[in-house]
Amino acid sequence: NSFCTLLLPSSMGHKAQFLRGQRDAAKRRHDRHAVAAKAHRAEASGRPAPTRGPAVKRDSAPAVVHPTRPFPSPAQQQLLLEAPADAARLQPSATDLLRMLRAMLPAAAAPRRGANADAEDAAADSAPSASPKRTRAENGATATSSESGLLVKEATARAVFDALKSEWASLLVDDVASRVVEAFIRGGGKHGDAAVPAEHRALAEEAIDAVFFAVGQAAVDQESKADASAAVPRISEAVAEREDEGAEFVSAPLAAYGIADLYALATHAVGRTIVWAMIECGSPAQQKRLNRALAAECLNLATDRHGVHTVIALVEHYPPSRKTIAPALMPILADTLLPDAAGAKAAEALLTPATAAAVADALGTDAIAAAASPDALQYAGGETKRMLRFVGALLTQGLQRDTADGEEKSNADARAQALSKIASALRPQLLALATNPLGNFTVQALLRALASWGASHPVAGPAMQQATDALLKSKSPSVVDLATHPIGAHVVGTLAQCAAAALGNALRPHLLKLAADKHGAIALRRLVAQAGAHAESVAAAMLQAMGQHIGTFIADEHGNLVVQALLRAVKPAERGKFYSSHVKNHVVEYCQHKFASHVVHCLVNGGADGAPLDAASLTALFGQLKRSLVDLAGHVSGRFVVEALIAPFREAQTLLVDALPQLVAAQGTQGVIIRLYDVCDSANRKRIAAFVRDSLATLATTKQGSLVVQKLLGRDAEAPAGAANAPVVLEAVRGALQAQRGLAESLRADFFGRFVVQLAEGKAPVSASAAPHGGRGAPSGRGRGGRGGGGGDRACYNCGE
């Protein structure tokens, strides 16, 4: 509505008025439907229909609070205990009964499972009451402490259960009464919880057995009879009493409500919460009975929106179920044309390091091959994503070598065999998957999983070799097509981690094409970075292969990044040869080029070992740039090369200090001046301070000069006490302000000068690196991949830096 209001100002014509009328009509219909829905809910719960009062405008949304009914009085408790079955079916009385049970069974106050459980409980607890509103957290905090002392003597969980067990079947599928049943089951806590009293645990197990009886498990499942507790005969006696009274007896009481078995209860919109509670809180024997009863229907459960959570609960709370559930879920994944989101969610819950091998074995080679086929990817569309995600998660979570540490050799061999099966199934479609938006992740997971076992492993080693050959030796598409593909380049990058030598041999004949391509350049850089001990030899071979075309790549947007990566990998002597052969005759031109200047900076600044060019080559480079050093210091690209030359050459420091008036007046030279001030000796620092002192009145009132003085003052202000370099500029500026009468007042009146005065007086000691326009940090922070890429910085609107 707000969006429509913005689009439709009152000044627009008939079309705008029509659209506004349509919007208002839709809003009125929405309001009418909301009022009708509230009235219907109130009628169903026995509460008076709400009346719509005047709208109240709030400044902000209030905190969410839930009004709660007062705890039932002793007289009300007596009425509830006289007819608990009837009370459990009505919303207000069921809430009172549930609060009593939570006071009797503290473990029953545990949070319910499911996305809408909190909202359902909040709605159930909300009722007209004179008690003050409290948050749900406050209600839960007092439910088991202060309320337990208000129970009448006759109020015991056993008494309530004995009164309800004859009506147990009808309570399971009642939207309101099912919460009471769930409270009995959760009241025993999880099996083995020492904090739960034994009688509460026994009562919970008896409640679970009553559910088994209600769905006919006690009568038809002969194997389960041995696992059942002694509570079943007592429940049978209660039902037999009703039979003597004329009630019709059935072997499965819930059959009268359309619930023929446990599967039907698990897929029921209400009964599903009972099954979840049974799985989470049942004893091992009861969990075994549940697994045995539901395993045959696991496939149907996983495709049902209610039943899928039952499968997940079994996997989470009863690990032995994974052995039977895993094979049962595989048809969902194998049928790529009709996969189900719920089934995929349940299948992913099976993926643990302990079960991944069994899941992979159950999945089978044919199923994976069908899921990864081009036809399936083309016709199944988005549905196949679930299959690819499952296989990728299987490779990542369960079949890597590091997840098998510490287990028996037989289990590790089984995992390797399962990984080999998946690699064999995916091998024919690796190239198609490598360029698929989702399949490429599966291919990368496969390569990493195979590489984790090592090339010498008898099973995973050959599988890795075959997968590598399938990607590198294909002719259509070739490895070059893969490396220059926006998605396939990521797979090539993973190959660089897992099979750097084989990838280097495959890409070497195509260096020129790859280095000029955006994605190919990334592949080459990752290849060099992942080569490890062989990085130097790989980089040297690539530089030699580029040959006479190296100058083209130095000035190329993407090629300069490759050249930088190669130069960082080789030794200083090799970098010296590169300078003499390809840079020496064009060094001044390259320093002023948007992309080539990054290569020159890489030569001066050093490689991965931190060492720059060899001494002879570095001296020769400085000799060629010496005449143009001041001009380059003010160039948008060359100034970074000058910054790198200041530290190793004192002559560069002297030349720049001599040209300080010219540098201060130029735009964007603040970084060079600050670098010069940081690394030069004390004599040159004093010369800089003297220049600032003598020219303070002029410098502080111009934009460029004021920025330079501010940065120098900030650098001195942040220098630690006792530092080797004394804050000479700060002392010089303070001395000038004191010695020259009226200078401080005139600078305070100037827009730029007032900042200089404030810094000198210490009122606003802002460091140069924290200034609004920012003092440029290390040159390596510019652009992509170090100083590569020819961009990445935005000029300050004020100073242009």
Structure, explained:
Mean pLDDT is 74; it is low at 1-12, 54-66, 113-149, 218-251, 376-383 and 765-801. Helices cover 62% and strands 0% of the residues. By secondary structure, the chain is mainly α. It contains 52 helices and no strands. Helix 34 runs parallel beside helix 37 (559-569). It starts with a helix and ends in a 40-residue tail after the last helix.
Cα end-to-end separation: 44 Å
> Major sheet: size, sense and barrel closure?
none
By DSSP (H or I, 4+ residues per run), the number of helices equals 52
- The dominant shape is extended
Structural class: mainly alpha
Low-confidence stretches: 1-12, 54-66, 113-149, 218-251, 376-383, 765-801
Average pLDDT rating = 74
Strand content: under 5%
Helicity range of the residues? 55-70%
Strand runs, count = 0
Radius of gyration: 39 Å
SSE topology:
Layout: H1 2-7, H2 14-45, H3 74-82, H4 84-87, H5 91-104, H6 117-125, H7 136-143, H8 157-164, H9 168-172, H10 178-186, H11 198-214, H12 217-220, H13 222-225, H14 231-244, H15 262-266, H16 272-281, H17 284-294, H18 298-302, H19 308-317, H20 322-334, H21 341-349, H22 356-363, H23 365-371, H24 374-379, H25 384-397, H26 409-426, H27 430-434, H28 439-453, H29 460-472, H30 479-483, H31 488-498, H32 500-507, H33 511-515, H34 518-529, H35 535-546, H36 550-554, H37 559-569, H38 572-583, H39 587-591, H40 596-605, H41 615-625, H42 629-633, H43 638-646, H44 650-658, H45 660-665, H46 670-679, H47 682-694, H48 696-699, H49 703-717, H50 728-739, H51 743-748, H52 753-761
